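Action item from last week, closing it out:
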Amino acid sequence: MKFHNLLYQRSIKIISIALAVSVLAFLLIFQQAHAAAVITAASTTIPEAVPPNNGSITATQVVTLVGDTFVASIPVNSITVNNLPAGLALAVTRNNDTQITISFSGNATNHANVNDVTNASVRADATALTLGAAATSGNFTFDFSDPAVTTKTQLGGACGTQETDCDRNLVCAPVEIDKRYMCRGSSDTLGCLNTFNSMSQADKDSFGVVTANDLCATGLVCNTVIDTVQGICANDFGGKKAAELKLGEDTTDIRNEINRVINIFLSFLAILGVGLIIYGGILWATAGGNDEQVGKARKTMIAAVIGLIIIAVAWTIISYVINLGDTLS
């Protein structure tokens, strides 16, 4: 009887232990079957494509899944990127049961260096996974770069036939058809005079630049009256044509012109005076004892001599005044 009781008690213990082991095994299997899937993003930084610094992304993000598998046909929008920069879109490629590749298209709206996104992450919805439990990766960064600063060609510089090669308010055009293209000033462009003065002769020859006017676009001239230091490209109101005809380049002093006119006038009067003396002499010679004609001849000759004296004095005074003005100036 005691033997049977002992056997019974041991059987109960064995059965209890077996039940406990079975329960633990079941719980372990259940936990493994329902453990949360983990996804890992391979790249911690996704850089902007440089160049062209336009907000585009050519790098890809490879995502690996642990604890589950991706469904054979991943539904649209079941894989997303949290905090994806505005302007970008993503495309998902299934590599195998546990790996996908995410690529990016479009251009980020804001893509300066200050617009970096440091808390982006990949999320897989339940519909994308076999066991149906959503998963999210750790954070990664979208790294943007400041756009490169483009230096535009300034006034008087060479350009490649494109307006965009020149700084604003400048036009890209040759001075002559067979010469190099140059950035030329449009209306109100400053600097045509000092740019011309600072250009080397070699550059002037290569562009066909002869005067500061050539630094301005066709139909404009370099106006040095409005701005005497820099010069400003302005509408041509005949100044360029006047320069071609060399109008206004005569530097003769106005006093010399006045002196020349007065000398001509006094010379004419002197000739007239001499003519009157000759006329008086003829009257005297042909008077034939006629006292009235002799008197007329005498008066004519005296008047002519007085006139010549006045002319000589006037010429002397005028010459002195003009010479004095030259000395003082």
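Closing note: The domain at 38-143 is CATH 2.60.40 (Immunoglobulin-like).
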